[in-house]
Write a structure and sequence with these properties.
Structural class: alpha/beta
Shape: globular
Helix content: 40-55%
Radius of gyration: 17 Å
Number of helices: 5
Number of strands: 5
Strand content: 15-25%
Largest sheet: 5 strands, parallel
Length: about 160
């Protein structure tokens, strides 16, 4: 067994604008600072199902999608400005995808992500059975290691 150092140059933190994802962001920021890596913030905007919409409403739906995309970009930029230190090397993106987990996996592959830091919402029972877990799906298909952060559990990061 060889002793190899860990080199983390790109950390991805998916943001869904929940307190859970902001909690995970604290971990991602700290790791990014310690490893002097680039922190990537990513929001996945679900695509609207055109097959379910009558044809004469398609222009309205496209307009709605464009407004949602603009709003998500503004919100993610606000998170970056308010929650990420300016001296930290960071990137951000909002992408549209039918399923958040596939957008996270695709972004990870396309951006040479070394570590994903993401929240688990802790759904259980019926809600978990119906909605599944984005985090679980990312874990199963991820091209890199994942640190999952459960809100209100044992914390290593102290909020300032």
């Amino acid at each position: 067994m060889s002793d190899k150092s860990i080199n983390i140059t790109n950390i991805l933190c998916p943001i869904d604008f929940s307190e859970y994802s902001f909690h995970a962001l604290n971990y991602a920021k700290t790791l990014s600072q310690q490893f002097k890596s680039t922190l990537h913030l990513l929001h996945i905007l679900p695509t609207l199902p055109f097959s379910q919409v009558p044809y004469h409403y398609h222009d309205d739906i496209l307009d709605l999608e464009e407004k949602a995309l603009l709003t998500a970009k503004e919100e993610l930029l606000k998170v970056l400005k308010e929650k990420v230190p300016s001296e930290l090397n960071s990137k951000w993106d909002v992408i549209k995808d039918d399923a958040p987990f596939s957008g996270i996996i695709e972004y990870s592959k396309n951006n040479n992500i070394d570590l994903i830091v993401m929240a688990t919402h802790g759904y259980s029972g019926f809600k978990h059975a119906i909605f599944g877990s984005t985090t679980e799906r990312v874990i199963r298909q991820s091209p890199c290691p994942i640190l999952t952060v459960k809100h209100n559990e044992h914390d290593f990061v102290k909020n300032k």
